Amino acid sequence: MNASTTQPGTLFEKIWDAHVIEQGAGGDALLHVDQNFLHEGSFHAFGALRREGRTVRRPRQHFAVADHYVPTLGRDAGVAGVTDPEMRGLIELLEENALWAGIEHAGIDDARQGIVHVIGPELGLTQPGMIITCGDSHTSTHGAFGAFAFGVGASQVKQVLATQCLWQRQPKRLRINIDGTLAPGVGGKDVILAVIAQIGAAGATGHVIEYAGSAIRAMSMEARLTVCNMSIEAGARAGMVAPDDTTFAYLHGRPFAPRAQHWDAALAYWRSLASDPDARFDREVTIDAGALAPMVTWGTNPGQGLPITGRIPDPAAASGDARRGIEAALAYMGLQPGTPIEGLPIDRVFIGSCTNSRIEDLRAAAAVARGRKARIPAFVSPGSTPIKRQAEAEGLDRVFTEAGIEWRASGCSMCVGTNGDLLAPGERSASTSNRNFEGRQGRGTRTHLVSPAMAAAAAVTGKLTDVRRLLAAAT
Fold this sequence. Notes:
The protein is 33% helix and 17% strand. The protein is of the alpha/beta class. The chain has 3 domains: 3-171, 2-Layer Sandwich (Aconitase, domain 3); 172-243 and 276-291, Aconitase, Domain 2 (3-Layer(aba) Sandwich), CATH 3.40.1060; 295-474, Aconitase, domain 3, CATH 3.30.499. A hairpin with a 4-residue loop joins β1 (20-23) and β2 (28-32). It is globular and about 55 Å long. The protein has 16 helices and 19 strands. It has a 5-stranded parallel sheet, covered by helices on one side. The protein has a 5-stranded parallel sheet with strand order 17-16-15-18-19. It has a 4-stranded parallel sheet with strand order 11-10-9-12. It has helices spanning 11-19, 43-51, 85-101, 116-123, 154-163, 188-199, 214-217, 221-229, 245-251, 260-271, 320-333, 359-369, 385-393, 396-402, 452-461, 467-474; strands at residues 20-23, 28-32, 35-38, 62-65, 104-106, 131-134, 148-151, 165-169, 172-179, 207-212, 238-241, 283-288, 295-297, 305-307, 348-351, 378-380, 406-407, 428-431, 446-449. α2 (43-51) crosses α5.
């Protein structure tokens, strides 16, 4: 550890200092990586490793899962049912590489299969105090457990595979305090969309965010995972929440979590990770949780969001690059300034992704869909096979299907559409995913990011709707 750990420290600093192997110049450090996750996109790193005659240094500290290219329909046939040869090849290549390296692998037929950022926590592989990497930008999700988790590129995946280490430059620290009580119908997705709308899509560039405050402490692990998942959409290197009793209760008894005396030792360490009362942050932001409403994005980046009660902004009220950015977003999205967001017609609804596909998310969507009928095409893709089984045991699948909402298998699905789940050009979606970039869900498609409850509200009304009215009507 560095000597700095004797001084008051933040959660991030404590983890960073405990993982430094060698200190470089200018804030760079060689860090030990505790856990690395792999998906189909890792074939570049494996290919380079094998061409160079290298092996994986510590196979047990890696876990591979097929998620980006697996279909959400026709899964009974397994990999043989993947009709696209390129997709099938990538799924098979991951299995081959994992077997070669001796890495545990949750393939398309595995009972644990799901989205990498869902099953990592679910299996107890994600733990407080860890440094976690994956070749995927939304690795920040795992920070909800009090880990420093971040996405890496193909060359860095190769470095972690070969050495279990990685050079990194230490980021700055930003604490976002969210105090107060969230109103009914307002959840973790609304919180993070409100944060990004306030600080901007580049507002946390060069920083690690620690989320704190009474509203964060009151959140479930599912909600914290959603918040940390989208930290990258504010430009942050990572998002983190200090581990607490909620964290420990979630982890206890999970397959890869410590057991017996190892659990007690881990718990003692995990409790020491919280930022010290007098720790210093480079920046701080405070948000009143009680003032938040259900959020919707209107533009082409996650920072272009407003409460459902808002109106599409007028570029004339801005200037310079900001004005040009709003004009371009409105042109792509086919929207006019001053239009109320509520009531905007929607063509299709997607409920899923590493942001919002956990059991709590499905329950929230089902609560809105129960006893109602979908007016537009909609489908649900659970975050993992175990979540799918749990939802079916609770009867959530029947709630969706009776409402006319399709119930599918687990995978990344229409978040990015690499498995073929795409919108048609010009279609407008209400999506629980994390990105609304141009073409994210298909060429020429228009994405509005919302919570699972808001997505279900759009499905049963055919338009963007304030879910609070539907929830009030159901009571």
